[in-house]
Amino acid sequence: MSSAPFDLLREKREELGLQQPALASQSDRQTMLKGAAIGTGLIGLLLGLTGLAVLRGLFVEAEIDRLARAEAEEQQLQGKFTASAQGLRTLEQSNTALVNGLIGTRSSSALMRDLQQRVPQGIQLTDALQQNDQQQMLLKGLANDPEAFVRINALQLVLERSPLVDADKGVTLIKAARDRTATNNNRVSPAVEFELRFAFREPIPAAAEKVVLEDLGAEGLSRRLDLLQKEGLLP
């Protein structure tokens, strides 16, 4: 005949309100399981947060790299644009200088045609020299009597009305004198030798310059201006 183990502390535990050893062991085991579950959950949460932080860091790093590449590409494009703009400005400046030089070029055919139309009767031109970097003209000639000096004065006045002459600066008489050493068997007064100087006018707009050249018969230069106008190079 068997009997349950004798527990000497049973009454004491009952007096103190303590659980039986078997019940206490079961309760402790449940508490440990709950604690383990909570700890595991916290560890999992921490690992999850750590993973999110790592992914976020990788995303931010990738975004920084993308922005850096975009900035580098933008700087490269900006450099190309600046170089292209500078090249365009240089080309425009070269074209403008070329056009201005062409417009400012004195057409010999236009000048000769203009002088031919303006020289009064009794005046003979003997020389025409461009001076001061082709900005001035020195005319030499002979004026015959009667009224040789009047003829010279008339030439001054008509030259001032020329579309090629700077009217503000006028036409200056440099010399006017008779050559007394010239042989004259008929005892007629010798011709008056004279020199006149005038400045060419400043360049005018291309369209107006073209009209002047056409009126004076400078067809070659007029055709060149036509070509520049068709190419859109005239100011």
Structural class: alpha+beta
Number of helices: 6
Principal-axis shape equals rod-shaped
Strands, count: 4
Strand content: 5-15%
Secondary-structure element series? HHHEEHEEHH
Low-confidence stretches are none
- Given this structure, which CATH class of the largest domain is correct? Alpha Beta
CATH architecture of the largest domain: 2-Layer Sandwich
Number of domains: 2
Mean pLDDT value: 76
Question: Would you mind describing this structure in some detail?
Answer:
- With about 240 residues, this protein is of the alpha+beta class.
- It has two domains: about 20-90; about 105-180 and about 190-200, General secretion pathway protein M, EpsM (Gyrase A, domain 2, 2-Layer Sandwich).
- The protein has six helices and four strands, in the order αααββαββαα.
- The longest helix has about 80 residues, at about 20-105.
- The radius of gyration is 55 Å and the shape is rod-shaped.
- The model has no long low-confidence stretch (mean pLDDT about 75).
Which short descriptors sum up this protein?
single chain, 235 residues, alpha+beta, Gyrase A, domain 2, 6 helices, 4 strands, rod-shaped
